[in-house]
Amino acid sequence: MNNKLRVAIVGSTGYGGVELIRFLQHHPHVEITSVISSSSSGESIAVGFPHLTGVIIRPLDGVDPVEIAGRADLVFTATPSGVSAKLVPGLLEAGLKVIDLSGDFRIKDGAVYEEWYKHPAPSDELLQQAVYGMCELYGEEVKEKAFISNPGCYPTATLLGLVPAVQAGWIDPSSIIIDAKSGVSGAGRGTNLAYHYAEMNENFKAYKLNKHQHIPEIEQVLGHVAGSPVTVTFTTQLVPMTRGIMSTMYASLVGEHTDRELVDLYRQFYENRPFVRVREPGIWPSTKEVTGSNYCDIGFSVDPRTGRLTIVSVIDNLVKGASGQAIQNLNLMMGWEENLGLNMTPVYP
Ligand SMILES: NC(=O)C1=CN([C@@H]2O[C@H](COP(=O)(O)OP(=O)(O)OC[C@H]3O[C@@H](n4cnc5c(N)ncnc54)[C@H](OP(=O)(O)O)[C@@H]3O)[C@@H](O)[C@H]2O)C=CC1
Ligand SMILES: CC(=O)N[C@@H](CCC(=O)OP(=O)(O)O)C(=O)O
């Protein structure tokens, strides 16, 4: 007898989608019953992704909410911003549970969403219905809900690195500067000149300075935690690697705190959370130490000369920054162990 949860993936032919397949194939309570494509339905997914030969046998299905609801109980939408906003209402109406990986439902103020994403905002009702699924902060709210908005990749690394210190009042929120770097898979699979090998190899490229769509997402959560509006300086850079985000954050300390005290504060905050690992003082994380896994690793350095704190936080953008976190949300929604299907040791070297 098969009583597994039936799961469909829209956007299964993108980087987030194929990463969902990699993890869900090993999930003990899940069966992938439909992989969906708007451009290649009827084809085998192995045509475009030979590494999935023999893994997914069923051909790609088309994007029809009623048909999806006939095959699945829950759907992941790993679709571009703007596309999810149009697609998700029909999926919810068809009775499906939805975990959306795009930025479309994360910003709770529709006017702010339109300012940063340049697409028409979803309805206010849907924006309020979507739970912002950062499991370590809002895990209790995710439980038993039907519609989750999965956090962005940069906000995941950044917020997990900042929130405990902001909540404790140990740093001045108005002093926060975030210097973040991402591998190119963060931009998705769609071709664009900026991501060609000759453009990116042996190159570091700053982009969207002070205009990045993740700024309001980060500020929304920090404002919530701090209890008053927070604005941040946020710099994003492409670096010549495939996966990984390193977010390096700087802030002025309030009072005197040592590296040891910070480690203890963060370990207490993330006690019993399986995917945040806080480093001993003087041991800072690197992206390779989390590649292919759902871990977020965090390290600190207090500079007593300046009174400033540096926080370094790393994730794999496709796992903790997207598909792994989405499965973590699935586990919490369904009342399962948070780490089911996600106990992958990082790929090293
Ligand atoms: N890459 C990353 O590190 C992260 C990505 N995200 C977000 O996750 C989402 C997916 O990202 P990613 O996988 O990288 O993106 P990709 O560009 O790699 O894939 C997106 C997929 O969406 C599908 N798609 C495009 N238009 C439509 C449509 N109208 N209807 C249905 N499906 C459509 C396409 O497949 P097809 O043509 O076969 O339908 C495509 O393969 C995005 O919103 C992204 O911002 C979030 C965090 C991190
Ligand atoms: C390297 C790179 O280009 N990364 C993307 C992150 C995409 C993402 O996560 O965007 P959503 O908020 O729409 O989900 C970017 O900076 O826009």
Brief summary:
With 349 residues, this protein is α/β, with parallel strands linked by helices.
Notable features of this structure?
349 residues, alpha/beta, Rossmann fold, Dihydrodipicolinate Reductase, domain 2, 7-stranded mixed beta sheet, 13 strands, globular, binds NADPH dihydro-nicotinamide-adenine-dinucleotide phosphate, binds N-acetyl-L-glutamyl 5-phosphate, EC 1.2.1.38, oxidoreductase, NAD(P)-bd_dom_sf
Distinct bound molecules: NADPH dihydro-nicotinamide-adenine-dinucleotide phosphate, N-acetyl-L-glutamyl 5-phosphate
The CATH architecture of the largest domain can be named as 2-Layer Sandwich
- What is the global morphology? globular
Query: How many β-strand stretches?
Result: 13
Question: What is the secondary structure topology, with strand pairs?
Answer:
Blueprint: E1 5-10, H1 15-24, E2 30-36, H2 45-48, H3 65-71, E3 74-77, H4 83-93, E4 97-100, H5 110-117, H6 124-129, E5 131-132, H7 135-142, E6 147-149, H8 153-168, E7 177-182, H9 197-200, E8 205-207, H10 215-226, E9 233-238, E10 245-252, H11 259-269, E11 276-278, E12 296-303, E13 308-315, H12 319-333
Parallel strand pairs: 1-2, 1-3, 3-4, 4-6, 5-6, 7-9, 11-12
Antiparallel strand pairs: 7-10, 8-9, 10-13, 12-13
Helix pairs in contact: 1-12, 3-4, 7-12, 8-10
Residues 81, 102-103, 152-153, 182, 186-187, 213-214, 236, 238 line the site of N-acetyl-L-glutamyl 5-phosphate.
